[in-house]
Amino acid sequence: MTDHKTLLWIFLIAAVLIAVIFIAVYRSSLQAAEDSPGLENPKRKRFFFFALLFALLVILLAVTLPKSPYYMHADETPAEVVYVRAEQYSFNLSRTEELSYDDMELPAGKVIEFRVRSKDVNHGFGVYNDKYELVTQTQAMPGYVNRLRWVFDEPGTYHILCLEYCGMSHHIMSSSFTVN
Amino acid sequence: MENRSLKKVTSVWIITILVLFLASITLGIIMRFNQGTQLHLKPNTFYATLTTHGVTMIGIWAAAGLVAINYLLSRYVKTSAGLSIFALVFTVIGVVMLWMSTFAGNFHAAWTFLYPLPLAPYAAWKAWATNLFLWSLVVFGVGWLVWSVGMMAQILRNYSITEIFAWQHLTGKEPEKKTPPFILISSVSLIGIILCLLAAVVLLVFFFMEMYTTGVKNDALLMKNLTYFFGHTLANEALYLGLAAVYELMPEVGGRKKFGTTWYVALGWNCTMVFVLTAFFHHMYMDFVQPGGFQIVGQLASYFASLPAAAVTAFSVATLVYRNRIKWSFTNLLFFIGIIGWLIGGVGAVIDSTISNNIILHNTLWVPAHFHTYNAMGNVLLCLGFFWWAAHDFSGTRDTFRSHWPTLTLLLIGGFGFVLMFYLGGASSVPRRYAVYPEGIANGAPLATAAAWFAVVYLVGMLMVFLTIIRRCTKAFSPAS
Ligand code: HEM
Ligand SMILES: [Cu+2]
User: Fold this and answer.
1) Fewer Cβ atoms within 10 Å of its own Cβ: the N or the C terminal residue of chain A?
2) Long-range contact pairs involving B452-457 (C-beta distance under 8 Å, separation at least 24)
């Protein structure tokens, strides 16, 4: 998985690059002579510019699509199944379809399947590690069950925050579980 | 005479939009200070503010694009001021209804009012507020649908279907009748707007059926798809309207030859027209029950909707300026910076529209980060460029640029500083739409405070632009003009 910091750097570098190029273009205009011909050979340059961007996107697609969460551990049997029920404004984690009020402990390094449902409105099942970095998520939608498979490599306390706006106490809707 | 009334209604539109803009920025600043814990709103007040800010902003900047193309369209086809007046009246009524539903009725289901939240039995708002909110959307929708269909009909009187999409250019040979890029982009965007407004009609009818009849229960996944087909498409097409104004005005204001339509411009915009309609699937990546094919289409369409329009526009604007002695005015600087902001926001969007990234970015502050970049530092500046140009056009005053660097500096520092705090928030996993951040989300509050101050700087810059535009616009009414 690519992490947040990598994505931030990719973004910042691309943003600065765009800004620098356009500032250079702007300055070239200020310094241009009255009869300056502008960009030479624009058709050729245009072709290379478009081809380059197109190739870049195709490569990105080829690299990223197979990493989509729908295919993660798809052909494995989960070691544990956790039933998650979200409602305004709490989460319930259970090993059966019935509600449970016991603390949830899960094994590290094994495939866990979360079956996420909602009793009322849309919620988001956002899983954060103990440093409060978002590690994975799925939505909780009324009438549907979203199955999220995940392997937790790091033991520790994981926090669940609601990641779909669900009303006035959305920001205090949370829960947690332990991985050991 | 007709032209004079078009100028008048355009001036009233511009002033209305800017007043609502300043008010909505203020709401945004209040939200950021609340998240930074300098202010302590009740959560439901915070979320009502969020809802008001979101709908108003999306509404006024979509309207701004329509105002711009309505005015510029009069250069190519016969347009009427009547349509624009009609839409203005509906928009103002809609805004009053909306603000009443949120501030008097405390409706706070966010701008996407995702089903079934507006109908939730334990909602903290009054039932009449839900009604008023949804009916305010009906009022907006009717106003804009009539307006957009009207403009499309006016275009079709002078251009055939083939010509509005510039298909005759795709052969590569010089066609007999050329399609100006402005007509092409306006048509592509109007079609998109009409389609997404129709989706909104279906969505609202589904809501009303459940509200006013018994026994009807909607499907949450279908409703979410409809919501985002409407919301995502509207927000994107609004941007393309701003670009239409840039294609039309930037070379002209710069004293250069007008842009022409070539085969690649035609192809680029046709691809964008098609792909943008399925890109909304990227809002459902984290709904694993959505058919898998749609998810893949979502990523493909997100990539290939942004590529052609962005690449063609970036290249056209860069070649217009590069080593060319163009006349720089405030209008052109706003266009130029707006294009940069739009492209940077686009990078943020492409990163988020990649499914394997979305799993750690979805509904974090990365989302408002990218769309505020291409709105507040993109489309807003493009539309403002048009407003500025129009204000000078109306009043017959000259538009110079040297004295405007202080204003631009405020907008640049304030605007990019403000959105950077959102990106840093997203990269620190800070959730979006949180009135207050939980203790563990340590970066949330300090970033919010910094963002609020940057936004204040942006607001001051905006106020300076606003005062000049208002002064010029009111001249369109003076008897001498
Ligand atoms: C400097 C000016 C602006 C400020 C200070 C501002 C501030 C904010 C804030 C604080 C949020 C909530 C973020 C969160 O989820 O925690 C927000 C959301 C939003 N803003 Fe802005 N914004 C500004 C400009 C704009 C513009 C120009 C648009 C144009 C379309 C816009 C559209 C939206 C939308 C659609 C939302 C989402 C509302 C929702 O979640 O329901 N904003 N803004
Ligand atoms: Cu929730």
Assistant:
1) C
2) B452/B29, B452/B32, B452/B33, B452/B36, B452/B38, B454/B413, B454/B414, B454/B415, B454/B417, B454/B418, B454/B420, B454/B421, B455/B25, B455/B28, B455/B29, B455/B32, B455/B414, B455/B418, B456/B29, B456/B414, B457/B410, B457/B413, B457/B414, B457/B417
